[in-house]
Each structure stands twice: as structure tokens, then as C-alpha cells.
Amino acid sequence: MTAAQAHAGARALFPPLVVSTLITAIIAGIAADIAWEIWARFLTPFWVGGPLEPAALVQGVFGLSSRFAAELIHLVVGVVFYPLGYMFIARPLARVATPFLPWWIVGLGFGVGLWVFALYIMAHFFAGQPPFLGFIPLTWASLVGHLIFGLVCAATVRWRERM
Asked: What residue ranges are annotated as transmembrane (predicted)?
């Protein structure tokens, strides 16, 4: 790819439908998921007394008894589907609605969107929990984790697209 093609691709609303786009999404997902896991399992316990447990939410949503299956679902969603959502939904919407926002604000906004999806849509509507788990300290730790995820995802996509 020439520099001109890369520059034109960076301005396009959607990334090209090529293998390198999927590779970028997966790399972004791995980086963001690692950052999330460090926050969720190693740092959050110092704040709220225990780790974030997204697998427990997945178990509640899908009625799974298998913790392994729930962890696997959360991993695949975080590594593949969320980064694709950033690349094909969140970033294009931001480019149309708020083209003046820098990439890192869009990444943080994406993280907020993931947090709303997890703790309002999935936890409340599907798992029957109070909206945002009643805004307990775990709610705010989850927000920070999703902000980290969104920021790392956006930064990694930006880095890969500039290569």
C-alpha cells in the first residue's frame, strides 16, 4: 500500500474489507483485553475488594453453568467483536456526527458505550440486575475498565493504520 492509499484509507468512513483490517481488529482486541484484564483482575481488587467478574455476567445473561464457556465468550467478544464495532460502528459514527473530536476522545466514548451496553443492556435487561448494578463501587471500576479498553483499542487501531 502506498502512502497516498494509506492516507486515503484513513479518511474513508469505513476501513477496507481486507484481511489486514481483521488482523488490526484482533491485535487491537488483544491489546485492549490485556489492559482490561490487568485493570479488572489485578488493580480493581485494591479499590473494591475483589476483581471485576464479566464471566459472571455472561453466565447470568446466557444461563450458563460453565465458567470456562463464559470466560471464552467474553474473550472472543473482547478480542474480535468489540474492536470490529469500534472500527465499523463507533468510529464511523463519530466521523459523521463529531468529526472534530480527536481519536482518543472517540476511544473513550467507545469505552463508555461498552460500559452502558454491559451494565445497562446486558446486566439489566438480560440478566435482571438493577440498572448499572445500582451504581455500586464495582460499577465505577467497570467504567474505568471500559474506558481503558476503548482507549487502548482506539490507540492500537490508529497505530496499525499508520503502519
From this structure: 12-36, 72-89, 101-126, 132-157
Rg of the chain's alpha carbons, rounded to an integer?
16
Q: Is the dihedral of CA 144, 126, 89, 116 positive or negative?
A: negative
CA angle 46, 148, 153 (to 5 degrees): 150
For the residues 99-110, what does the mean pLDDT come to?
97
| Residue 45 belongs to some domain of the structure | yes
Per-residue pLDDT of 108-123, as tens digits, reads 999 999 999 999 999 9
Q: Tell me, yes or no, whether 62 lies in a domain.
A: yes
Other C-beta atoms lying within 10 Å of the C-beta of residue 117: 14
Helix, strand, or coil (residue 160): helix
> Which range of residues forms the domain containing residue 102?
19-161
Q: How far does the chain reach from its first CA to its final CA, in angstroms? A: 10
Q: Considering the entire predicted model, what is its pTM? A: 0.90
User: What confidence tens digit (pLDDT) does each residue in 66-97 have?
Assistant: 999 999 999 999 999 999 999 999 999 999 99
Determine the Cα–Cα distance for residues 103 and 91; give it in Å rounded to an integer: 8
102: enclosing H helix or E strand = none
Instruction: Go through the chain and tell me how many residues it has.
Output: 163
Find cell 483482575 and name the residue: 41
